[in-house]
Design brief:
mainly beta, six-stranded mixed β-sheet, 37% strand
């Protein structure tokens, strides 16, 4: 009896260990040209494995992903695992010429990294030119098998990727804009899981449909994978309970509308408590620029109740349509952001070692003599900057490679901690002497373990705008947001030091500011940039160089043997 009891105990222990065991997931991504039909026209687009959107990767916290990316397309490509912390594995982060050289046509590269301390919804996308218009997919991180969700387990989970579609080749769209110095052509449609929806020509038959059962609760994992538009989202007749953003759980709050910026994710629980029929999920742009063209269309998917009854509500009965905010409803965007909080009191990194103040905004470069440009007044080119530095990406090597091998002449570490010139950042008429930034490859060096606080301040140069700022390699706490010019004495009193939200992308309010804080505990070179792709193309970016700490576990790993060369 004693021996059988011991065997039973050992069996239980083994089962417990297996339940909490981590796995290594192997995938192959073939980047290739694929024919698709959208908006009545045939197109050849760049995809992964012929899928648009690309494959959904599903893992558990603690698992390791090994993804072999094979480039069979005609363009250079890299893949970024958006929001993954990449502890010591910066070589797998993916931004072109920052942590790696691109994978050239015919080449391949194996991304290998472990997901540590993150649960929820993230995503992956191309980080070269504008390829991410069609090269993207969901990355779902569930809790370990022995750990439940911090909410009742949903009946079903559905990733919903919001995208942006051009009838033209997106790479050619941005190349033409770079050639002329003007703004790129706006998109022709938004999409839900790759489909524009009922309101666009030749699209109704392929509208994304999500089947649900009356009374059940579904977890909808929204991802804004659009290139250049923040989006309002609503579901007809249904409330949404937000339970997570950017792979961090939130204090649940109920809302009828979401505002999701490019790069951000939002997890919501929706209970199917309405009459068993069909309801639209709809998304349209939230636009804060003035006098600038934008995509003013609305994408839809259909929530279809499967009641098992004989009623045929079919296509003859149109789905109910939700109420969406006006495209410029900053009040709705502000109210939604204010509702997002951590689920409990958090230990905020302190005291602050680095107090930084970064302006973010647009600008203009003068054209070369004799050149006719497409910017304002025909003699300027659009640009963008942080602290008056328009970021220039290297071309002959990556920043991380140059840092690791101590290569001179690739970058400098004198990115300014504060604006070189202080001015009324949100004034209606900023002096045009401040409109032309300096093009440079400047990094800001951080000591390992230092606590960093950054004020992100929008400017009204050219036009004020809500800028979604994404930091690679880190999550951060958003301590406060506000409008006007940040005032350290007055606005520090607004800091949420109890339960601020944790994110990897913050939507800096139009004509306003946001304050973020994080601990620099991940060595490497980490890009911070606007996730409106037109703005990063123009130079709205910078990078932190986080030094190694002490010992192997606080140091960047050696580069992989198959790291692409430039």
């Amino acid at each position: 009896m004693a021996s059988s009891g011991l065997l039973l105990l050992l069996g239980c222990l083994a089962s417990a260990l297996l339940a909490g065991a981590t796995k290594v997931h192997h995938h192959e991504f073939i980047v290739q040209e694929t024919p698709v039909k959208r908006l009545c026209e045939e197109h050849n687009i760049i995809t992964v494995n012929g899928q648009f959107p690309g494959p959904t990767l599903e893992v558990r916290e603690g698992d390791t992903l090994v993804v072999n990316v094979v480039n069979q397309a005609q363009y250079n490509v890299t893949i970024h695992w958006h929001g993954i912390r990449q502890f010591r594995t910066g070589w797998a982060d993916g931004p072109e010429f920052v942590t790696q050289c691109p994978i050239k046509p015919g080449g391949s590269y194996k991304y290998r990294f472990t997901i540590e301390g993150q649960e929820g919804t993230l995503w992956w996308h191309a980080h070269s030119s504008w390829l991410r218009a069609t090269v993207y997919g969901a990355l779902i991180i569930r809790p370990r098998e022995d750990k439940p969700y911090p909410f009742d387990k949903p009946s079903r989970e559905v990733p919903i990727l919001l995208g942006e579609w051009w009838n033209a080749n997106p790479v050619e769209v941005i190349r033409e804009a770079q050639r002329t110095g003007g703004a790129p052509n706006v998109s022709d449609a938004f999409t839900v899981n790759g489909q524009p929806g009922d309101l666009y020509n030749c699209s109704r038959q392929d509208t994304t449909a999500i089947s649900v059962k009356p009374g059940e609760t579904a977890l909808l994992r929204f991802i804004n994978s659009a290139l250049n538009h923040e989006l309002f989202v609503s579901i007809a007749s249904h409330k949404m309970t937000v339970v997570g953003v950017d792979a961090s759980y939130t204090k649940p709050f109920v809302t009828s509308v979401l505002m999701i910026a490019p790069g951000q994710t939002t997890d919501v629980l929706v209970t199917m408590d309405q009459a068993p029929t069909r309801y639209y999920i709809a998304a349209r742009g939230y636009v804060t620029t003035q006098g600038v063209a934008f995509d003013n269309t609305t994408t839809t998917a259909v929530l279809e109740y499967d009641c098992g009854c004989t009623t045929d509500f079919g296509p003859s009965i149109p789905p109910a349509f939700p109420t969406l905010p006006a495209f410029n409803d900053t009040g709705a965007a502000t109210a939604f952001a204010a509702g997002i909080k951590s689920p409990r009191k958090v230990e905020i990194p302190s005291p602050v070692d680095e107090n930084l103040f970064f302006t973010v905004g647009l600008g203009l470069f003068n054209c070369a003599p004799g050149q006719l440009c497409a910017g304002p007044n025909n003699n300027t080119r659009f640009t963008a900057s942080m602290n008056n530095v328009s970021f220039v990406f290297p071309k002959a090597t990556s920043l991380l490679h140059a840092h690791y091998y101590d290569m001179p002449g690739v970058y400098t570490t004198d990115f300014p901690a504060n604006p070189p010139v202080q001015f009324d950042y949100t004034a209606q008429n900023v002096s045009q002497s401040l409109w032309q930034p300096i093009p440079a490859t400047k990094l800001y060096k951080l000591r390992f373990g230092s606590v960093v606080q950054v004020v992100l301040q929008d400017t009204s140069i050219v036009t004020p705008e809500n800028h979604p700022i994404h930091l690679h390699g880190y999550d951060f706490y958003i301590l406060a947001e506000g409008f006007g010019n940040y005032d350290a004495e007055k606005d520090a009193a607004k800091f949420n030091l109890e339960n601020p939200p944790q994110r990897n992308t913050v939507a800096v309010p139009v004509n306003g500011w946001a304050v973020i804080r994080f601990r620099a505990d991940n060595p490497g070179v980490w890009l911070m940039h606007c996730h409106l792709d037109v703005h990063i193309t123009w130079g709205l970016a910078m990078a932190f160089l986080v030094e190694d700490g002490y010992g192997e576990l606080q140091s960047l790993e050696a580069p992989p043997v198959d790291l692409p060369m430039c």
